[in-house]
Amino acid sequence: MQRTSTSKAVVGLGTAVTALGAALKGSRLGAGLVGFGLAHIMLGTLDRFRPSVRH
User: Fold this and answer.
1) 9-19 pLDDT, tens per residue?
2) Taking the mean position of all CA atoms in its chain, how far away is CA 43?
3) For 33-50, what is each residue's pLDDT tens digit?
4) Domain interval for residue 20
5) Rounded to an integer, what distance in angstroms lies between the CA atom of residue 29 and that of residue 37?
6) DSSP at 52
7) pTM, whole model, 2 decimals?
């Protein structure tokens, strides 16, 4: 799997988890899922800008 496709998969997973957490609003589980999803979106986005090292 290439770097960009891995980053896109992480961002996509984060988006899905954030949407699930938003559907469960008002509960502690929903808040945790939103935070977990947003963290994945942020990390996937940062991974896209990271320089790659090729040997």
Assistant:
1) 999 999 999 99
2) 6
3) 999 999 999 999 999 888
4) 3-49
5) 12
6) P
7) 0.83
